[in-house]
Amino acid sequence: MFWFIVICCIIIFFVLVSRYLSPVRLELNGSHVLITGGSSGIGKAMALYVVKHGASVTIVARNKIKLQEAKAEIEKCLKNSQQAENNLGPVDILINNAGTSICGVFEELDKSEFQKMMDINYIGGVYMTRAVVKSMKERNRGRIIFVSSQAGQIGLFGYTAYSASKYALRGLGEALQMEVKPYNIYVTLAFPPDTDTPGFALEQETKVKETSLISETAGLLSPNDVAQKVIEDSLNGKFLSHIGIDGYLLANITCGMSPTTSLLEFIQQVLTMSVFRLVSLFYIVKFDSIVQKCKQERESAKLKTS
Ligand SMILES: NC(=O)C1=CN([C@@H]2O[C@H](COP(=O)(O)OP(=O)(O)OC[C@H]3O[C@@H](n4cnc5c(N)ncnc54)[C@H](OP(=O)(O)O)[C@@H]3O)[C@@H](O)[C@H]2O)C=CC1
Ligand SMILES: CCCCCCCCCCCCCCCC(=O)[C@@H](N)CO
């Protein structure tokens, strides 16, 4: 009898903690989603995904022609006429996705690039979020996504400017989540690895060899897979959104004091943290050896030409 009561108490405790931690899912059907950078790559894949699931979407970008092309593609996926109404109402889900990357060795990057990365990747998210958060708070309803990167969890060779701007989103997201949680608003930070988009193709043209070799570790994903994972995590109110095995390892080893949105995930982090730290040593040694090897290759190439 004693043990029965103890076990019941433990179960009740876990059910209560789990209910406290896990947000109620927000449904896409009938929601209004605003996506910055929705005319290309991950943003466009997100727009197509949410529209296919009954949401209305607004996409924001600079180039009008690319926007019109994306609009035509999205309209083909509309499920009902209500989705195409002009007055879409307030924003339920904001996706801060617009962003760009610059790759290069620290001292070779132009000073202005550091400012540019912060303006586009970080300040852009601040401004957009400020525009919608008040109305979300009034309605006690909302999701805010910041598309960071795996390079926003680990600083990588060639990404001194880019990584810093993606790390900034983490600080913003954690602080904001604490402010908006009482209003039933959930923030999601997404950490994709390399993803096969027009932006990625452009980045390849200027990529430093070390950066390519290190990034290849986590593979190349399709924008559709990334879009689906991020949106679903956000609807479920998950704070850290990762994809793939390396994404899983990285998100858990860098979880820090981030908000906990799943009891199971929390228990798993408590149990695996030290093992993952051990695993990280293999990656660190591998990345150091890539850097060392590239340096030697460069030096011997220089010797040959001189
Ligand atoms: N692809 C990858 O490997 C990865 C990408 N990411 C991140 O995902 C996000 C999307 O990347 P991806 O899909 O590859 O990018 P793309 O370059 O394919 O698309 C970027 C989108 O953002 C818009 N955009 C760019 N700059 C601005 C700006 N200053 N103001 C408004 N809109 C802008 C572009 O339209 P327009 O130019 O017309 O404004 C376009 O719609 C970025 O934040 C990126 O850092 C993260 C990890 C990996
Ligand atoms: C236990 C420890 C596990 C460690 C795993 C480490 C894996 C590191 C891979 C980093 C890949 C970074 C890709 C950045 C993509 C990006 O943002 C740009 N392509 C944007 O255009």
Automatic annotation (TrEMBL):
Entry-linked PANTHER family: 3-KETODIHYDROSPHINGOSINE REDUCTASE
Segments forming a coiled coil: 60-87
Subcellular location: Endoplasmic reticulum
Entry keyword Mitochondrion: no
Pathway note: Lipid metabolism; sphingolipid metabolism; Sphingolipid metabolism
Alphabetized UniProt keyword annotations: Coiled coil, Endoplasmic reticulum, Lipid metabolism, NADP, Nucleotide-binding, Oxidoreductase, Sphingolipid metabolism
Top enzyme category: oxidoreductase
InterPro entries: KDSR-like, KR_dom, NAD(P)-bd_dom_sf, Sc_DH/Rdtase_CS, SDR_fam
Name of the protein this chain belongs to: 3-dehydrosphinganine reductase
SMART domains listed in its UniProt record: PKS_KR
Similarity remark: Belongs to the short-chain dehydrogenases/reductases (SDR) family.
Organism of this sequence: Tegillarca granosa
Domain Ketoreductase: 31-194
EC identifiers of the protein: 1.1.1.102
Principal location class: endoplasmic reticulum
